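User: Working on a comparison across species. This one is Mediator of RNA polymerase II transcription subunit 17 from Pichia angusta. Can you predict its structure so I can line it up against the others?
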Amino acid sequence: MVVDKDNEFLSFAPLLDQSSGLDDSNEDEKLPLPQLLAKIIAQRGSFLDISEDKLREEIENEQLSKDTASEQDDVEMENEPSFTQEQFRSYEDFLKVKQEIINSVHSALNESSLSLDFVSLLISCVRPAAGSSSMSPHLKQHINIGSLSSDKVDPPEDTEKLQFDTSKVGRGWKLESLERAATNLKSSSSRLKEEVAKEKNFWSGMVEVLKSNEVITSMNIKNTKEVCVKYGYGDAGSTYYDKGIGILKKDATTGNLFFENSAPVKEEKQDKIVNVRMYEKTGENIKLIGESNVEQRLHTFKEKEGVINEIAKARFFLFEEELFYQLLREAATLISLQVSAEEDKIVIDLHDELIEITQVVPEEVRAPADLPSNERADLIQIYLRLMLYAEHKHNLDRRKIPPLALDTEAQSAPQTSSLSLIRPIIVYNRHERTLQSVRDVLESIILSHFENDRTRTKEHLAEHLKINRHCNESSSRSKDPFARISTPPASVLELVADPLVVKVKLTSLFASAYSVMNLTLQNQAGSTVLDVTLNDVRELEDCLNWAIRNHDSI
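Assistant: Here's the predicted structure for Mediator of RNA polymerase II transcription subunit 17 from Pichia angusta:
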């Protein structure tokens, strides 16, 4: 006879229900009296409200409820299906089934505990605190926290489909690799073409620099060897602190050669050009009468481009910077000759004229107005540049002189430059002004001799007055264009005034810019009747007037 296990379990249900109600003991009776009283007060309230009638009524109601419940149980028992004797089992079978159920419960408990430990150990690998809180003490004692990890494993797919997909992926990777390789080769080819073009531009610029006879050298700048070009005047005899060495660099974008100044400066140096202005001074009124044209000098750099033009432009502005530096340096020593110097301006006072030498930014250069002394201003600025060239040449010639032998007794003279820039302008200007004053003195004497007849005076001076300028230059030095500058100016005026011949030799000094006049008077026989040296034009005039009046008694 086959017995259904579910029905078999149901057959023991009444027994379980009956046994579950056995041995119910009242726990309230086991409580101590204080706790029991506290519980009664909590449930029933205070004993003041309890009376005998209320207790009896409550007991009757409780009894009535028990009778009602027993009647309902009897009705339920009657309504329950009746069981046959075969459906009942022995008590041993009941205990056996009960033990199986308990074992199953324990087995399920163990498995759930093992699953919980397994999950906790997995979690402890990621979150140690959360995993260890739900882990059993036995597992904590024997296994380290975080020693078990997990990873997602996809279930195996169909082999043929997997192989087909793998082959498709492999072909795709291969095609992608080929396309990437083609792209890389193409980009590499383009990059190589660009690099070749850049190198071609760079070396073309370098060849252009070499063809322009520029001096190319190499220097270590900031521990890096750089290709440099010398654009300064150091090899030409310049002693300026800026030697004029620039770096030739390659443009990273186009590869073109460009020029960069390598002089370490604290602040960016601004290019400036020397400009000359002339003012007419009438008392306290000053009027602009001339200005040099520097726009024409800058026009050359505006039309050209390239590294050659940049080098030439740097050389030009370096020369202008050195020129103004030398002018400032000399002007500081010429305060006694009416020369004032400021940071960017030099003013030379020439009695009735002012010469102003300034530095102008190229952006501020404009064409000068049409003034009467523009040509003189241009000549002065050309003269200043030529004088600086002459000083460079003088320094270069001085370097060619062989050194003296090392002798303790022989001492070489200090090597100082004999050339100057501003002083010759002052000396020659004063010399010409003094020469004109001496001529006016001679003219006034002849005019008084002819009783203020200007026509006869003019004819006599044109016929008998001879002026020999710069007569102290030797024939060998006259071939040198700078001989007049290195030699003090001297001029001779010779006038025939019957019965005397007046000869005045005017010599100017570089140190003081003053002139010394040597007056010589000769008679018709050619003998010298008076030879005197004077320092002032008024003295010369008084002496001549006295000599002409008293020539018979001399």
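For your comparison, note: Confidence is low (pLDDT under 50) at residues 1-25.

User: Helpful, thanks.
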